């Protein structure tokens, strides 16, 4: 199966330069792939300091990995020509957490929509540009006549964020990387924005990477999930399996900390899980050993492998050491399923 966007053994270490003594491991040998045949919605979930923001930056090509590769349609992003990189930038579009930061308060919202059309030469005439903009606004549930010609402060937070989704759409991307897109939006508007994002996947076939600290919304819109802890993917697979039946002790802790009575309450806001700001490179134990209720002597002596515990789910934990251990190439395919049958893809690991 071909991959649209792929991380191969990506490690990112910050610091350690001429003027910096400390080094922080933000991503630790992460591999995964988004299939091109059946674009899905994949959540990258983690607390503050888990590495999810770094992963977003690496995927967008804004930050270069210290080790490993980012591949887009099989090509190493680091080795792209200017023209190829421009195409990569068009096809992989971000939607950020705080739309207000993107707007210039002195310009009408039209400005954020016309600028990318000009930059990527998406239209030959003004009329064509207008049509592309109106189509994109309608696709995210906004009426062009009620949106265009207004200043950012004249729109609600939800409308501003949907304009940002429309902006990403203008460029006909194959991947949208949505980084906490609803965390600064009223709870009442979250569902509408998440619906818009889900429709882009279901109707236009755009692969979505949904980066979040919120397991509740991740469960609502995603097909798959990767749970990050201190720069490592500790559990990955179908969102149904991972959230309903978490297997890694850390994922279990997170799922148990979701406040049950109030689905709108943010996960992580009142969790017992402590902050996990990055650690120094070179760990020789399980990173979770100090907090794990299931820890065994071996957990303090070696780093666990990533084991396949279901056909489409794996975990980084010695509890599953009797299951097949996956190579980095096989880990990358844990999230991939066959486009037609939606059955798990065989990786040859069994
Ligand atoms: Fe807990 Fe050991 Fe699994 Fe780490 S490897 S999560 S310490 S059981």
Compose a concise summary of this entry:
The C terminus is likely disordered.
Structural write-up:
This protein is an alpha/beta fold and about 350 residues long. It contains 12 helices and 12 strands. Helix 4 runs parallel beside helix 7 (about 155-170), helix 5 crosses helix 7 and helix 7 (about 155-170) runs parallel beside helix 8 (about 185-205). The site of iron/sulfur cluster (SF4) has 13 residues, from loops.
Q: Which features characterize this protein?
A:
4-stranded antiparallel β-sheet; single chain; binds iron/sulfur cluster; alpha/beta; 12 strands; 350 residues; 8-stranded mixed β-sheet; Rossmann fold; disordered C terminus
Which CATH-level-2 architecture of the domain at 3-222?
3-Layer(aba) Sandwich
Order of helices and strands: EEEHEEHEHHHHHEHEHEEHHEEH
* Helix-residue proportion: 25-40%
Q: How much of the polypeptide forms β-strand, as a percent range?
A: 15-25%
What's the total number of strands?
Answer: 12
Biggest sheet: strands side by side, in what order?
6-7-8-3-9-10-12-11
Bound molecules: iron/sulfur cluster
Low-confidence stretches: 267-278, 338-350
């Amino acid at each position: 199966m071909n991959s649209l966007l792929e991380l191969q053994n990506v490690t990112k270490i910050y610091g350690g330069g001429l003027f910096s003594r400390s080094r922080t491991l933000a991503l630790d040998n992460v591999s995964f792939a988004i299939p091109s045949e059946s674009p899905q919605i994949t959540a990258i979930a983690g607390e503050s300091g888990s590495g999810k923001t770094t992963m977003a930056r690496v995927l967008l090509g804004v930050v270069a990995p210290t080790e490993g590769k980012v591949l887009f349609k099989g090509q190493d992003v680091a080795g792209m020509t200017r023209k190829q990189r421009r195409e990569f930038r068009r096809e992989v579009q971000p939607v950020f957490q705080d739309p207000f930061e993107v707007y210039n308060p002195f310009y009408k919202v039209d400005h954020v929509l016309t600028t990318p059309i000009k930059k990527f030469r998406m239209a030959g005439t003004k009329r064509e540009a207008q049509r592309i903009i109106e189509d994109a606004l309608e696709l995210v549930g906004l009426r062009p006549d009620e949106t265009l010609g207004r200043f950012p402060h004249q729109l609600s937070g939800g409308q501003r964020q949907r304009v940002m989704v429309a902006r990403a759409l203008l460029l006909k991307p194959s991947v949208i990387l949505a980084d906490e897109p609803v965390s600064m939006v009223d709870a009442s508007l979250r569902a509408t924005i998440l619906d818009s994002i889900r429709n882009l996947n279901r109707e236009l076939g755009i692969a979505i990477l949904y980066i979040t600290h919120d397991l509740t919304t991740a469960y609502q819109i995603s097909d798959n999930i990767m749970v990050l802890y201190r720069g490592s993917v500790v559990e990955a697979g179908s969102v149904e399996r991972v959230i309903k039946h978490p297997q890694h002790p850390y994922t279990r802790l997170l799922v148990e900390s979701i406040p049950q009575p109030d689905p709108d309450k943010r996960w992580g806001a009142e969790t017992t899980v402590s902050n996990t700001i990055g650690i120094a490179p070179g760990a020789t134990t399980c990173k979770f050993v100090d907090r794990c209720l299931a820890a065994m002597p071996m957990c303090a002596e070696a780093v666990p492998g990533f084991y396949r515990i279901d056909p489409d789910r794996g975990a980084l934990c010695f509890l599953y050491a009797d299951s097949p251990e996956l190579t980095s190439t096989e880990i990358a395919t844990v999230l991939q399923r066959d486009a037609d049958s939606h059955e798990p893809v065989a990786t040859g690991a069994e």
